[in-house]
Structures are given as C-alpha cells and as structure tokens.
Design brief:
By secondary structure, this protein is of the alpha+beta class. It has helices at residues 19-26, 30-38, 55-69, and strands spanning 16-18, 45-47, 50-54. β2 (45-47) and β3 (50-54) form a beta hairpin.
Length: 70
C-alpha cells in the first residue's frame, strides 16, 4: 500500500506537497519554488525539518496570479 491510499484502500488526496511535488504541480523548477517561498508569494509550513506546501497555498497563489494577469 502506498502513501496515497488509506488503510481501507481508498485513495486519499494530498493536503500538502513536498516542495519538489509542488513545483511539479505548478510546472516550475525547484529553484523557482524556493524563490516564490523566499519572496512571500507562496505560503508554506514547516514540520520538523521539512518544508511543506499546502494545496490551499497553491490555489491561493494561482488565484492571485490570475487576478494580477487581467
């Protein structure tokens, strides 16, 4: 059973992504992700030594980019 499947075998949607996964979701490089994080344009959380990107933060980032594009 992989991480994306609950103990019941039902797929579970991620709530957070690793930085590399979030970069793939946005179709940008890892370096670009860290620049977005450093600049405050993308919110993250820290769990232990891991930096995680909430799915909600990706949604907010995309919405803000769309609002600024028009």
């Amino acid at each position: 059973m992989d991480r994306s499947t609950a103990a019941t075998g039902v797929p579970v949607a991620p709530v957070v992504y690793r930085v590399e996964e979030a970069a793939q979701a946005l179709r940008v490089s890892r370096d670009t992700m860290y620049e977005l994080i450093r600049s405050g344009r993308l919110r993250t959380i820290k769990v232990g030594s891991r930096r995680l990107v909430p799915v909600l933060a990706l949604d907010e980032f995309v919405a803000a980019a769309l609002a600024g594009a028009g």
